[in-house]
Amino acid sequence: MQKHTIKRAAAGVISVMMTFSVLAACSGTPQAGQTGADGTSTGEKKSPVTLKVEIFDRGSAPAGQSATNNYWTKWMQDNFGTPNNIKIEYVPVPRSQEVQKLNVLMASGGDAPDIVFTYDSNLVYKYVQQGGLADLGPVLDEHGPNLKAFLGEETLAYGKFDGVQYAIPARRVSLGKYASFIRQDWLDALNLPVPQTTEEVYNTLKAFKEKDPGNVGKDLIPLGFALAPASYEPIIWPFIKSDLSEEETYTLRMQLGSRDYPILTPGHKEAIQFLNKLYNEGLISPDFALDKDKKKMNQDVMNGKVGLFSEDSVNPLLSNPGVARVLQTNVPGAKLKPVDPFAGADGKHWKPQYIPAGMYIMVPKSSKRVVEAVKYLDFMAQKDNYFTIFNGDEGKNHKMENGIPVLLDNQETKDKMFIGGDFMIISNGQDLGDAQKNDLLSVVYLAPEFIEDGKLARKISMTDTVPMVRFPKPIQAEVKYGSSLLDKYHELLVKSVLAKPEDFDKTYEQMLSDFMNSGGREIAEERKAAYQAMKK
Length: 536
Hints:
Layout: H1 2-27, E1 49-57, H2 71-81, E2 86-94, H3 98-107, E3 116-118, H4 121-129, H5 137-143, H6 145-157, E4 160-161, E5 164-165, E6 168-172, E7 178-183, H7 184-190, H8 198-211, E8 221-223, H9 229-236, H10 246-251, E9 254-256, E10 259-261, H11 268-280, H12 295-302, E11 306-312, H13 323-330, E12 336-339, E13 351-352, E14 357-362, H14 370-381, H15 383-391, E15 398-401, E16 404-407, H16 411-417, H17 420-423, E17 427-428, H18 435-444, H19 451-461, E18 465-466, H20 476-498, H21 504-535
Helix pairs in contact: 4-20, 6-14, 11-20, 12-13, 18-19, 20-21
């Protein structure tokens, strides 16, 4: 009897619940968890998911802003994050420590940002081999139509390893890297011509030191120099023999990080010895070994201490950090002139150039936000968003001249655009879809008084350039030893340059031997084998 009573009671409860559900459905009142006619959730709003994005921190943010809290981080949250129920969290990485910091982030597993990047293709392949990266191909096909159209197959191919799209390479608009800058007012004061060869550079630096045309005194630095590629590559490469066979070109270099280093190539030792000579004669920055981010060198230039230096193309002419303009403010009458002074025995001003791909953007395999990451990048690739991030608002931050956006010289624009290039991670440089416009754009955003110098610096950066060599497959030994050997290379450079002249040969050979014993020999042997296999 008791069992029948319980059954009748349960049946009554079920009947009431069914009646309630029918009434709710008939009344048109949606219940939690149901979906409305427009396909959106009609229940309680889900909590936003968090998308973590790496961003370079150059320490150049205006007061009140930072690399992770500025106009563009807020703009991206408002225009992409919030409409997609995504909270964007930016993770700062110092530009000069990007590889070391990225390794730490990737080793942290689930704590790594969902979007990370590097310029080092060997490092990417290392993560591939460790199983640390997500396959982006299928997600890119489904959620990245704008991104795919913007990058194109040629650029995307650089991000494929073992046939899988493990990275999304940024598009490199300009392939030019370096230009040098000299104090034209110092040359004029000494009635000297612009040096055209490395030997003439030496004589000019000697004249700067001995005659001190800028009345600098004991702090005079004839050649500004830092432990950075922009300082040493324009000097080293003209020493490298240019009449090498194809096999020597492929096998006597090593790719360390994102660059080819001609460490075994004839002429390399002579280049380092030239730097040793400059150091021992007091002609270059005495503390260069401590200046990996070029901040000290640029500060010395701005304070009027430096006669000649090399940099990334038009960088000294930019409004931030404003090297040329601050120099003119600090030293009335100072004039920086773009020059291409370093040349070897063949008269060529050899210098490296970029590959068509820029940084490699990746998503760790541990990330649960692969779709959101690709959507983030695809949002950037949409034409209007791409243009806005690079140029700000028309009338406030830029004006259009013959189809080219020209940044306005006002404080709002300076405060807003300080991070635009680093924020737009899918593109190294702005692409207007027209080569001629791109050339003009590369200098038009400079202050009017620097535009002609900017054109010259761009031209210099593309003169006598040396492309990287690329094997069909990554060199395993470079993947294994690349990062540590780059530190070894810098150690070789520093100790060899600082050595007394009579100790140079011994120091250089010791450091080279240490370099080769630390993985360099394996790289050299594998490159030889890879070249022979490539030619079969």
